[in-house]
Amino acid sequence: MAKETGIKSWKELTPGIAITNPGNAAELKTGDWRSMRPETDCEKCIKCGQCYIFCPDMVYSKDADGYYVHNYYWCKGCGICARECPVDAIKMVQEVD
Amino acid sequence: MSKRIGIEVSIALADAVGLCDVDVVAAYPITPQTHIVEHLAELVAEGHLDADFVPVESEHSAMSACIGSSAAGARTFTSTCSQGYALMSELCYIASAMRLPIVMAVANRAISAPINIWNDHADLMYARDTGWIQLISENGQEAVDLSILAFRIAEDQGISLPVQVNLDGFTMSHVIEPLMMPEAAEIKEFLPPFKPVLRLDPAKPITMGPVGMPDVFTEARKAQDEALKSSKPAIQAIFDLFAKQFGRQYKLVETYKTEDAETIIVAMGSIAQTAMTAIDAMRARGNKVGIARIRVFRPFPAAELVEAVRGAKNLVLLDRVTAFAGGEVSGPVALEIKSALFDNGLLPKVGNFLVGLGGRDVTQQNFEEMVERVTSAKNGDLPAYEFINVRE
Fold first, then answer.
1. CATH class of A29-97
2. In whole numbers, what is the pLDDT of chain A averaged over residues?
3. How far is B140 from chain A (nearest CA, A)?
4. What is the dihedral of CA B12, B18, B22, B28, to 10 degrees?
5. Do B198 and A14 make contact, defined as CB atoms within 8 angstroms?
6. pLDDT at A2 (0 to 100)
7. How high is the mean pLDDT of chain B?
8. Dist. CA B232–CA A34, nearest whole Å
9. What is the three-class DSSP state of B73?
10. How confident is the model at residue B256 (pLDDT cuts 50, 70, 90)?
11. What is the C-alpha to C-alpha distance for residues A19 and A7, in angstroms, rounded to an integer?
12. Following DSSP, what letter does each residue of B329-358 receive, concatenated?
């Protein structure tokens, strides 16, 4: 769990919490900030990739069929993808436990 | 071999920094620190010191430049005081949290208002909680020696923290004193080349000073606090190494005639020398008085101080700063000492005096008055602190 969330003991921190492995933001689970998640209706999706382009994180990637799929590990639920989708294929739905 | 010379303390300190082969000096002039940076600028301009002198536009920029230069792996020095320190202070927290071994000389001066360029310890206390190691000199020799020691302490890989060398403005910075000036070869032997724990290097990119969210901020602070805590024995070990090479032994807390003393004065900086003269005079009259002087204020040497004052019935605690706490608790130095006494179950009679504010002289007679005030007072009669030498 500690590794998944990037949380370390104070003893393991580098001096001044310097980041010595570039790009390690990818390890940080930002998905648990989310209160709403995007869901894509593949019937409406035209595979244009606007969601992938506008996502400020790294949530979207192309699958074998050319659809853009979510990785909720990073999705903060900002809703930019749903706002930008030209065919309203993405809906924001409430996260419920 | 070291040579005994007569020299202005500021010039000697700047020469010592030059002999430490500093790489970058970024500083802005402010009275009474001016001679230190002027002389370093001269050394660079005249080709005696192979360093970059960055004539920044403010103290805020001075510390910013120092942070960048130290992060890049350069041995870095600056100097300031008073309002200048106040202006750079937000960066000082960052320098220590980033564990950058910058050395800064502070020619201690009061903080306005009223506008005042003379000595007290307002800037020293302002810096108290910034996470820097704070060394306090008593005379010119110490100002020089502690400057050399500051680089050795700061750059020790187990410490890697910035260090302040405090010297009283004017009463030390502008006084010509006889002192032993170490030679470059001796310093070179004592002070190894700067090897940073981490540094900015295009070949191996790292991020220094990143954001620390609530999930890591506490851990970052804990790690920084541990670094400062563990620096205390390391500082004494480096003082001992210095003694082996230069023959001058320093301690975290220095004592004079405390062994059998019934009354002990606790002070910092140059007034301790006047206090020793006063102690000799009082002892000649049969009054058993001694002094404990704090040479390292951060990390605070509580155990050493408690050991030094353990046998005393009366303590005269001096603060060279105004305590605006509302009158019911003591000044900052006395507060720390009282806290250490409490933790050790000691309850001597304590008087706390605010002395030497904004350049006011503290005389031998003042010391005798303070000692008399505490020894003759009944327990519980002394206020949390009082001004001395103040016109009613």
1. alpha beta
2. 90
3. 34
4. 60
5. yes
6. 43
7. 97
8. 45
9. coil
10. very high
11. 13
12. S--HHHHHHHHHHHHTT---EEEEEE-SGG
DSSP state of A74: T
Confidence of residue B293 (pLDDT cuts 50, 70, 90): very high
Closest residue in chain B to residue A16, using alpha carbons only: B98
Say if residue B242 is in the same domain as residue B258. no
Single-letter code of the amino acid located at B387:
F
Q: Which residues of A touch B208 (CB under 8 A)?
A: 16, 18
B6 in contact with chain A, both atoms CB, cutoff 8 A: no
Predicted model pTM = 0.91
Same domain as B205, residue B171: yes
Name the residue range of residue B270's domain: 253-387
Q: What is the ipTM of this complex?
A: 0.86
The low-confidence residues of chain A, meaning pLDDT below 70, are 1-6, 97
Whether residue A10 lies within 8 A of chain B, CB to CB, comes out as: yes
Within-domain flag for B392: no
* Number of Cβ atoms within 10 Å of the Cβ of A10: 16
> A13, B197: Cβ pair inside 8 Å?
no
* Nearest-Cα residue of chain A relative to residue B99: A16
Domain CATH for B274: 3.40.50.920
CB B206 to CB A10 under 8 A?
no
Q: Decide which of B188, B223, B246 is a domain's last residue.
A: B246
CATH at B36: 3.40.50.970
pLDDT digits (tens, 9 = 90+) for B194-231: 999 999 999 999 999 999 989 899 999 999 999 999 99
The percentage of residues in chain B with a pLDDT greater than 70, rounded to a whole number, is 100
Please enumerate in sequence order all residues whose Cβ is within 8 A of that of B112, keeping only pairs 6 or more positions apart, or say none. Answer: B82, B83
